[in-house]
Amino acid sequence: MGSLNAEYNELIAAGEDLRKVNTPYGWSGPAAAAASTKGNQLIDGLEEWAAEIAAARRAAGDVADAITGLLNGVHEAEELARVHHFVIGDDGAIIDQGPPPDVPPEQQEAVANERRAISAELAERVGQVLRTAEDIDNDFCVVLDRILSGHTIDAGANDNQSTSLAAAGNAGAAMGSLSIPAPPPPDATAAQNAAWWATLSGAQRTTLANDRPELVGPRDGVSSVHRDIANRHLLDKEQSTWATKRANILQGIEAAEKGIIDPTDASRLREELALVDSKIAALDSLENRLNQAPDTPEDQKYYLLDISASDDGRVIVAHGNPDTADNVATFVPGTGSNLNNFESNLDRADDMHRAAVRADDGVSHSVIAWMDYDAPNTIPEAGLASYAEDAREPIDRFQDGLRESHEGEPSHNTIIGHSYGSTAVGFAARDEHLAVDDFIAVGSPGVGVDEVSQLHMSPDRVWAISAENDPVSGVVADTGRYGTSPSDPAFGANKIHSSPGSSWPLGAAHSQYWDRQNPALWDMGKVIAGQRPG
């Protein structure tokens, strides 16, 4: 690279000198014309040379940068194999050296399933490294072919009186840039996303987050820092989109009032305007909440992990970086949760973060407000299991993504479901092997099973919190609509004590688990911190 840079700089200087002496002032006639023609040919040749050198040095630089990402992908695959007692052969084959010898008989099937999943992930990572390497090689060959065949720029089409070698070099540099490996499809697993992300360089990751945020922002398994960068761009786009919608509606109202369109449309348009205004207010409130001082510590910052204002709106906000935190908790709220009321749920995540810090201020914590599923909007809708069924895959994929993107030693992960949110989490834990260590069901109407043993979790890591005056975890849960109440001793979960809560108005206790005088809040903090209450 150093020799290419030196060559390029000398060339630029020589080209400008040649342009100055191409046709001396006052010289005319056949000799002058011949000299000018020859000079222009030399300048054209130098322009092509400048473009070719610029393309070569740009491509070489991009290759060097891309290889750093490729080596990182290799390192991550090898480390994953080492930690789980696998070996990656020279031919890319995944060799399982066997599970630990002391696996209890009752856990052997679960361990075997886990090892199959790890083997599949290692195969995906090896495959992604090879695909990325091939992509780098192909792109570099394209640039070299252009240079060798003289197809970087057409210097003869330039006006030598106004075109400089620097401009030719810029054109060549643009042609020498390498593409960034394409991401997996939108429905890819978190492991597939992480395998792709691991092979990208830091510069490539930043470029994608800023220039193609839609490819990064919603992708589980990608680093939280870059998802935050991308989603803040997407938040800006959402604000612009909804501001445009508002302007169009106002124009429609004005046209209806003037009789340009059907006057009866005015009432409908005003209803639409109210909905749009509430969406804009929520987006603006989210932006204000995310704006923190640049020097805010990493474990206190907010990270925007997803944003969509379509339909009821979905949003994920982490308090603290989940990729570096020792303890990571995901809070799944229940009926009525959406973008418009994200503030109250983020407040609860903040309260649990505070409780975790109080339980252990010697380590870092991240608590995530996860509003990324279609929650029921009304009490009657909360009687439908379809919302929980549809939430299983997003919950499972997000938890897998937290494991994939985490740096260093694995974090202690907790998932907290409130009300119908606990039902959604329960359905996921019943049908999937959630990548969590602890599950807390708060004010739960049921989690889809009758016994804690029916969840794919260690029974002693499942917790239930029920306030005496909470009709959801009391009257509703006792109907058995979603299985045995988690607070019923027959269910078999650990119980976390709660204040009884207000008896009036009816249902007030259902939202009082995060009151600071309620011991339930502080015990949730202990579980998040990897401790046992009591």
UniProtKB/TrEMBL annotation:
Instruction: Cite the InterPro entries for this sequence.
Output: AB_hydrolase_fold, DUF1023
Instruction: Name the source organism.
Output: Prauserella oleivorans
Name the record gives this protein:
Alpha/beta hydrolase
Keyword annotations for this protein, in alphabetical order, are: Hydrolase
The Gene Ontology terms for molecular function here are: hydrolase activity
Q: Which residues form the DUF1023 domain?
A: 311-475
Q: Which SUPFAM superfamilies match?
A: alpha/beta-Hydrolases (SSF53474)
**What is the superkingdom listed in this entry's lineage?**
Bacteria
